[in-house]
């Protein structure tokens, strides 16, 4: 397949899915089929994309055959391709799961078109090579997520929606203003061109300022320390499949944008940006895990854990050695799988136990021991216990920070890992171990009677747990892949050459 | 011209920041509108103030001597469309939130994060109880 087709298909499938689902808005059955087919299409095209890039080639294309700084570029390196692949896996897993749990109710609120819109925005953001287009993809993703969150129209959801929309809109406008300043400083918005232009600017203080502006804009999306309040305010009100896809993808697009812009365009020099990110990473880890320790609602605990885990991903950018970046890449991939799985299982626990609140459920291990094991796999992986995927990704980032002399960061990472284990054990003790309240017993009876729903809900969770186990038990190829992806991220010339080769040579604007 | 635009940008951002920090969601929504227009202005200034000649090649010539930069216009147009859609969505969301929650005050929107046993950021006492409201207001 040509690079053009390879790069277009992962965006085209959700786009077609979105259009068809919106067209058939009355026919829910047809929407389900179209949505699932589009997700499978996204998954298969992302596999093809990974095959084309896994040996280290960077593929790029220019839409409308306009030369690079003028046209719209799509670029995929190993990191971007891996992110698109994991998006495809999530699209199918959560799409299947979404068929089970109150599907009718969500479908009346346009679940399928919005779901495909979310996937469209996410894949576009991973593949674009132009910073203004990144803004546009962010917007597509954001407005779909607004719709998905507010769709139920319950009091709780509307309240959460107001805060989520308000805080995210401010971040988005901030991003747009940063893009404007960047354009004013350089006269270009193509990321490969920016990578060449920014180091040649005389006023390097301006470049650092721009870097910090983008760090704030992307940091708000990624739920970094002082900018994360939209996340715990909103995530716990959505239904299980919606919050699973949010948790898997939304914040990770922010992390991806941070990693991409701070490896390609801005330097994390030891003087300013690097230490700032290091402090932010540490505070993000600590505040997130403390929030998780304080709550008693499974969805809230898990929401706060998203924040604390984002801190680990930032360590890579703060330390900026090849091993550290590799750790970040591995961490992002592992975390998407684990976090989505935990929310899927939280949905099952809610269905089987009757509530998301830990005080109102219990005794699940006695009746459903397999669910307990299924929960323990991602839970212990999130806490970083060997031999699960979380151990290797935590090990890589913490070892990298030890090697680079960031002892405080490494120590924070270890302590936060222990606290993560504490709050996971809290869920385990309350939901699975203690005696079941009466309401919980009734819910369990209903859950046991509904065989099809149970199968549809459990199958994706099992599949994601299998991925976690695979990364954990056969870590070597995954670590190797991350190492090579990190090498590629740190060698800007590969990326710049690929974009240049896809079109006529760069012509500087007069 | 640039200083005037730069000052206008600053004033708009300041006004928008003031409105966004308001407790009334309607003002917050208006603040977004002003802020997104300030962002559009920033893109416009970033493209440099210059000639207003459209970037068209006159007949008999093969290149343009001086022309307006079309890129910021394309960017601003995209940004306007997007911010317009978002503003429309925000208005509808805030309106339905107003209907369901019976308040425009963000401090009283505590359905998603109810206060359990008092909180530092919220007024003390049961805020859903209307009899307590005057005291809360007086305490501020």
UniProtKB/TrEMBL annotation, chain A:
Keyword Membrane: yes
Annotated localization: Cell membrane; Membrane
GO biological process, one term: ATP synthesis coupled electron transport
Chain ranges of the NADH:quinone oxidoreductase/Mrp antiporter transmembrane domain: 130-420
Keyword list, A-Z: Cell membrane, Membrane, Transmembrane, Transmembrane helix
Topology relative to the membrane: Multi-pass membrane protein
A family per Pfam: Proton_antipo_M
Transmembrane segments: 6-26, 33-52, 72-97, 109-128, 134-152, 164-185, 205-231, 238-259, 271-294, 306-325, 331-349, 370-392, 404-425, 455-475
Cell membrane among keywords: yes
Family matches, as InterPro entries: CPA3_Na-H_Antiporter_D, NADH_UbQ_OxRdtase, ND/Mrp_TM
GO cellular component, one term: plasma membrane
MF terms in GO: NADH dehydrogenase (ubiquinone) activity
Family from the record: Belongs to the CPA3 antiporters (TC 2.A.63) subunit D family.
Alphabetized NCBIfam families for the sequence: PRK12663.1
Protein name as annotated: Multisubunit sodium/proton antiporter MrpD subunit
UniProtKB/TrEMBL annotation, chain B:
Compartments in which it is found: Cell membrane
Main localization category: membrane
UniProt membrane topology term: Multi-pass membrane protein
Record-annotated membrane-spanning stretches: 6-21, 28-51, 71-94
Keywords: Cell membrane, Membrane, Transmembrane, Transmembrane helix
Disordered: annotated span: 119-140
GO terms for cellular component: plasma membrane
KW rRNA-binding (keyword) present: no
Record field: compositional bias (Basic and acidic residues): 126-140
Domain of life: Bacteria
Homology family: Belongs to the CPA3 antiporters (TC 2.A.63) subunit C family.
Name by which UniProt lists this protein: Multisubunit sodium/proton antiporter MrpC subunit
Species in which this protein is naturally found: Phreatobacter oligotrophus
Classification of source organism: Bacteria, Pseudomonadati, Pseudomonadota, Alphaproteobacteria, Hyphomicrobiales
